[in-house]
Amino acid sequence: MTHIRKSWRRTPSSLFLLMLLLPIIAACGGTPETQAPTAAPAATAAPAATTAPAATAAPAATAAPAAPTAASAATAAPAATAAPAAGNAPEAGTPGGTMTGAWVGPCCVGVDNANPMKAGGDHHWLDKIYSHLVTYDVGYTALMGDLADTWTVSDDNLTWTFNLRKGVKWHDGTDFTADDVAFSLEVCLDPKAGGCTQASQLAALKGGKAFIDGKATTIPGIEVASPNTIKLTTETPNAALADTLAETYMLQKSSLGAVARDQVGKSDYWTTKAIGTGPFKLAKYEASQYMELNRFDDYFRGKPLLDKLIRREFKDPSTALLAFDKGEIDFAYVTADEVAREESNTSAIVLPGPSQVDNTITMNPAKNPAFGNPKFKQAVLYAINRASIIENLYKGAAKPVSCLYGNPKFTPANIEPYAYNPEKAKALLQEAGIDPASLGEIVMDTYYNDQLSLDVMTAIQQDLSAVGITIKIQQMDGPSWTKRYYEDGASEMSFIGGANGADGHRAYQYYHSTALWPKGGNNYKFNNPALDKLLDEGVAEMDAAKRPAIYQQACTIMSQELPWVYMWETVRYGIVNKRIGNFLYTPAPGGGSYYDQAEKWFIRQ
Which pLDDT belongs to residue 519? Predict the structure, then answer.
C-alpha cells in the first residue's frame, strides 16, 4: 500500500531525495510506488574564477503555473518510503521501442508550442531536441556542463569563458561551434525575432541593451574566441549569468540563420526542421495532434536506447491521465486529488516534488486604479483563507508564501504572514477609501483548466465575496489566455503561476522597472526604485554568503507592495508507467531544464 503523509511541509528535509531514479523500483505488481519529493535547491552564487561546472545560482525557470485538483479526504503528498537512493547507477537497458507521453499540465503547453525561445511550460519536452551551454542536475542543486564542459570567470567577475565540448554534432551531422552560441544569444536578444524569455536577463551582456533598443547592430559582450571557446562579458558582475544560460537554448546558425529575422517567431522552422543537438530529432509533426522524435545516434552523451519519443496532444491533465490509465501513454501530469485514485493503478509510479512555482493573483492597474493600491492587495490577501485551501484542497501539499521567494534563505524571519483575517481586510479597504461595490464584477481569468484549480478559485471567490469583492471565474485555453493577458492587456485579475526558483534574481524579470513586456515579464509596469536597487545589487554580488541578506530586503518590499498577491507553492506530481526504465523527472517550473539522462530511458521487456 502506498503510504500517504498528512503534511509534506512537516516532513524532515533529510528524507527528500535529490534524484528521482526509477529503475530500482519493482517493475511489476503491487500498488503504484511513490517517490520522495525533491529537496528544494539551495541557492549559491555563480562560480568564482575557477574551472568547472560548479554549483552556481539556482535555476531561473520560466513562468509556469502549478495546481493539483480538489478532493475529499485529507490525502497529503506521498510518503518518502519507496524511493531509490540518490546516485544509483542507471540500468544497462535494452535498445529499441517507443515511449509516448502527454507532456501536458499543469498549464499552457501543447505540441504546437515548438519555439524554444519561448518554451513556456515545455522545457521537459524541448530539452529532448535542443541543448544549453550548461544545465542543472535533476535535483536542481548544482549546475553542470551541457554543451560547455568547463567555464571560468575572470578576476573582475565580468568575463565568463565557456569551453565547448569537442565533437558535438547537430542533427544534420554538422559541427556545433562557438559561432552557433553567438548566433543563439543574438537571436534571443533581437526583438525582431518574435521574443525570447531570457532576453531581459541576457541584456546584462555588454552592449545587450543597446542592441535590444535598436541602437547597435552588434553585441560586444559576445566574443567567439575560437571554434570551441565563447567569451561573454557583462556590463557589471552578474552572479546569475550561468543560471540564465541554463534555460537559453542553443540554435543552429546555418539553418535558422537562413530565416528572415522578423519571421523567426512565426516560422514553420520549429515544426519542419528544428535542428538541435539533443538526444532526439524531429521526425513528424501534426498540428494540434502529435510530435514524433527519432533517436539521434550521434548525440554527444551517447546513442539513445529508445527508438522514438512521441508527444500526444491533450487539452487538460485529466484527459491525459485517463489515457495513461488505459495504457495509451507512458507519462502524464497528475493533480493532487488524483494521486489517491492512482493507488489502484498497479503499473504506475507517482513522482512528487516541490514545484518551485508560486500560485498568485495578479491585478491590472490599467483596468482599475484600485488594483495598483498596495492596501487593496493586502486586503485581498487577508481575506483569503489560505490555510483552509491548503489543508482541504491541496491536502497539505503546499506552503504559503509572502513574497516571490520559496527559498527560506531569502525570506526574513519577521515577514508578514498575512494570516486569514477578514476584519483586517475590511479595515484596509476602508483605509484605502475603496468601496468594493464600486468595483463591480471582476473577472478573474486563468489558463488552469483542471478541476482543482476551479475548486481553489471558487474558494477564493467565496472568501472575497465575504468582504464585498465580487469575482467571476473564467478558465481559458492557454493561447487565448496568453493573448488576453500579455498581448491585449485585457485581463483584470488573473490566477497564475510564477517560478520562484531558488535564486533571488528570478524576481528581476517580473518586477524590475526595465523588464517591461515584451522584453521581460513585467507586463503591468510595476516600478519600485528601492526594489530595483536591491535586485541590481543582488545580481552583482558574486559572494554567495552576502546575497541572501540583499534578497531578504527585496522580499520585504515585495511582501508590502505586492506586485503580485502571493498565495502558495504547491507540490506537483508526474506519473510514469513502470515499463519505462531509467526515467528521471522532477516537477520543476516550465517542465524544468535539467539533465534527465533521456538517452538512457528504455522499455522494460
Answer: 64
